[in-house]
Structures are given as structure tokens and as C-alpha cells.
Amino acid sequence: MILSLLSLFLAQLCTASTMVKEGVNFLTKENLDYALTNNYTVLAMWNGNTCKMCLDEFWTIQGLFYSFQRESSFLVMANTMGVDEELDKLYHINIQSEYPEYRLFLRGSSEPADTFVHPDGGLNTLYGREPELDALAREFMAATDRGAKLAVMKKVVKLKNRYQAAYRYYKAMKILVRQGAEALQAELTAVQERREAAELFSKEYKKEVGMENVIRQFEAISLERAVVELTPYNFDFVVNGERDVLVYFAVEGCKPCAEFAPIFQAVAEANESGVVLARMDLSLYKSYARRYHIEAYPVMKWFAKGESSQFPYAVEVARTKEAIESFIQEQLHPEETEQSNPEEKETEQVNSEVKEMEQVNSDGKETEQSNPEVKETEQVNSDGKETEQSNPEVKETEQVNSDGKEEAEL
Asked: So which residues are the signal peptide here (predicted)?
């Protein structure tokens, strides 16, 4: 509701004729076309109606303005998902997303940068796919009888007007139903051959890349396997916040990786926690090393259920079966783990007491207690009382001389 009101406010504030650099412009096709025609660089932001973090990011994004003060042709535009359906469809915006979506248009280019471009060249594994259709592909593969599969195909047909890619998904499903998995594999091989023969980024190239990416969504993926082998085609299916996943990243030719592999396999084979254990070869998929800032191998990452797959936790434990199993239990049952470690609690108590003693030493109290003789000497010297007590004759003489009473009596 708040984001919708924000969109209405922006709509009244900014039109194509009143673009502002020191603020957020309302994202519409008209405004975007105007900016790109005039060779602007545009950061476009889509917020979700039910997105909990979108509003915070909306205000945070304004900090970008201060980074581009010298860039006179830089604009930021924002809108709410679903407000402009034509724009959402044109730039493949998932209106059901729980996170903000961004597109960066460089110097008037109508093709957003890095949306589908692979870091190592060509188009990436997202090109030609749609999240809603990917979900239907998984539903199709999970169906156990022909009738259930046909029901899913009908759902895809109903989406053909919303997604141009729907025909690709329908084609793959039809091949599987009529001819089987071997026929779909043969189709994939033919698609790959045509892609390799096509000119990079040509219409034919894009068509074949899109078809290959869709066919890959129909590869059988079993989460029941001891270790799931991750690829760019199944990564988002396995690691998506719907389940806890422990991923082991490795590279070929890495001796520590080779030594750790059987240990990880042993953990997976004994695993009954419900956590998915997976492995990814970053020799083949280097972009994921950049994505998760991985520079040393082997490394494990914990992708927690209910959290974004963009921000996994580093697993910093010993590479032993026992340490990894203990880590998994700590993530699943943190309270039970704390209660089941009385020795650890006792150690913490001892450390606390030692710290308290160190604090005592720092302000001198303990030193005084441990040296009573020194304390007594200092006290005596400071007021002279002990000296007087230890020389009673001198004290008596001084008293007599001072008042003359003793001489008078003599």
C-alpha cells in the first residue's frame, strides 16, 4: 500500500518533460524511452507491493546520486511491480518477486546491461526463461502420470499471452509426453549445434540459447541423492530459500579439495537432517566464484531456509565429519545445542571469573590484599602513629618537658 502511494506521488512529480537528476523519477515506458533517446544512463528499479525490504532500498538507492554528481546524464527511475504491465513484460520483471528488481541502461542503450549477459561472454542461463514457467516445469517433472502432466501443459497454454517463452516450455513438455526423455535429449543436442553455428547475439543465437535454457529445466533433479551436483541450470531450483542447503565449492586440480571430497561424501551419506548437501565445480562455472566472493578452495557455504540465496553464511569449521555434522545441528537446533554443552558453559564461567580477577588487579585492590605487611608499613609511615607507639619513653619525655610538671616535683 505504501509503495503504491509512493508510485502515485512519483507519477505526479516527474514526467518526461520534468526529469530530475537530484531525485527519483517515475518509471514508465514513456519516461524511459525519453531518457534513452537522449542518451541518458538510467538505473531502473521495480518495487513489489508486498516486498518488505523494497521501501528501505528505495530510500537507500538515493545514496547513488551522491556517487554520480559529476555524471550529468545519470538518472534513477522507480515504479511498483504490476503498475505498468507492458514495461514489466518487456524487461522480464517477476511481479511476484519478494525482492526489488533492477535494470541498468548504459548511455541510451535499450538493452539493460548484465541482465542476460554472461560474464564470460554470450547470454547466461536465465535468458529465455520465466520464474513462473520454471515452477510449472518442476511441477510437470514431479507429476507421476500422464493426466497430471497434461494438466500442467494446459496451465502453460493459458500463460502464452503473458510470456513469449511459454511456447518453448510447451514444446519441451510435448516431446517428453509423446516421445520420452531420449527424444528431448536429442532435441537439446540439435539446439546446441545450431547455437554454436550461429553468430553471437544474432536472432538465431538468442533463439537457440533460450530453447537450451528451457530444456535444461526438464532435467531430472533428485534432492534425495547424497550429494546434489549443482549447475547454473539447477542452482536456482536447489538453492532458493525454500530449504537449508550446505554447498561445497571446489575446483579441479585442487589437492585440498580432493582430500576433502570423501569427507563431505561421508557426511552426506549419513545425513538424515533434511538438509540438502550439494557440490559445485567452479572450474566450470567461474561466475559463481565471483558471485559469492570465493577465492580459496575448498570452501563451504550455508544457504539458510527462508533467507536470500544472495547472502549465504561462511562455514568456518574443521574439515572433519564430526565438525560438519555438529555445525549442521547447531544451525537446525541452536537452543538444544546450547543446552547440550554444559562443559562449554562451565568454561565460559571460568573465563568470566578470570576476567573479573584481572579487573581487580588492574585497579590495585588485589595487590593490597596479597601484601598485608606492605599495606601496614605504608599506613604507619603515613601518619606516624606506629612510630610513636614503638617509642613510649621518648613520648613520655616530650610530654614532661612540654609542661614542666616533672621538674617542679623534683
From this structure: 1-16
> In sequence order, which residues have a C-beta less than 8 Å from that of residue 218 and are 6 or more positions away?
137, 140, 141, 172, 173, 176, 184
Contact 60, 45 (CB under 8 A): no
Task: Report if residue 352 sits inside a domain.
Answer: no
- Choosing from 306, 339, 372, the residue where a domain stops is 339
Higher pLDDT, residue 61 or 297: 297
Element (H, E) at 168: helix 166-178
Which residues on adjacent β-strands are paired with residue 220?
A: none
Tell me the residue range of the domain where 153 lies. 131-216
pLDDT digits (tens, 9 = 90+) for 4-46: 444 444 444 444 456 776 667 888 888 888 888 888 888 888 8
Contacts of 166 (CB under 8 A, 6+ apart): 130, 133, 156, 157, 159, 160
Q: Which residues contact 72 (CB under 8 A, 6 or more apart)?
A: 21
Residue with cell 564430526: 322
In terms of domains, do 286 and 195 share one? no
- Looking at the fold, whether 30 and 57 belong to one and the same domain comes out as yes
Show the DSSP H helices in 294-371 as ranges.
Answer: 321-332, 334-339, 342-362, 365-370
Domain closes at, from 294, 316, 339: 339
What is the CATH number for 179? 1.20.1150.12
Contact status, residue 273 vs residue 325, Cβ threshold 8 Å:
no
pTM, entire model = 0.56
Residues 142, 64 share a domain: no
Total number of domains in the chain: 3
Quote the DSSP letter at residue 113: B
Cα separation of 60 and 209, whole Å?
Answer: 36
Q: Are residues 138 and 95 in the same domain?
A: no
* 168 closest CA partner among 133, 202, 203: 133
